[in-house]
Design a protein that fits this description.
single chain, 141 residues, mainly beta, eight-stranded mixed beta sheet, three-stranded antiparallel beta sheet, 11 strands, globular
Length: 141
């Protein structure tokens, strides 16, 4: 079992608690994640352990997943698969988001040219990611 962490939204009305699958973060550059987060979405894998309290709202954004946010302040909180088995929480909800080193980026070919991450990361294009997802690979934040 991983480390148990707690975070909250901007206004504090929503709290999230999760058991981390790992202490590393991933970045998604798809258009939905960018619109949801106001930039790239940086998340940590919480497996199926993500729990919320407060006025959490859900937006069903695709056939495979939904996005969770605070119903009061609108803070982006997480991405969840439709069956609830995969949960990825925004690192920004936790007290020290910098403690989660980014180890991979998905939808890399969808990333705007106006920014880039420092350091080396594993990268997957949209086509590579969708092929892995269809084959039962990791879920999509």
């Amino acid at each position: 079992m991983g480390e148990r962490v707690t975070g909250h939204c901007l206004c504090g009305a929503c709290t999230l608690t999760a058991e981390l699958v790992s202490g590393e973060a991933a970045v998604c550059h798809c258009s939905m994640c960018r619109r949801f987060s106001g930039g790239m979405l940086i998340v940590v894998d919480c497996g199926s352990s993500l729990e919320f309290s407060g006025p959490v709202r859900t937006y069903l954004s695709s056939d495979w997943g939904s996005r969770l946010f605070c119903g009061e302040c609108g803070s982006s909180l997480a991405w969840r698969s439709r069956d609830g088995a995969m949960n990825y929480a925004s690192v920004q909800a936790f007290p020290d988001p910098g403690r989660f080193p980014v180890n991979h980026e998905i939808f890399f070919d969808c990333k705007p040219a106006s920014y880039a991450l420092a350091g080396e990361t594993a990268k997957m294009t949209e086509a590579e990611f969708m092929a892995a997802f269809a084959a039962g690979g990791e879920g999509h934040p």
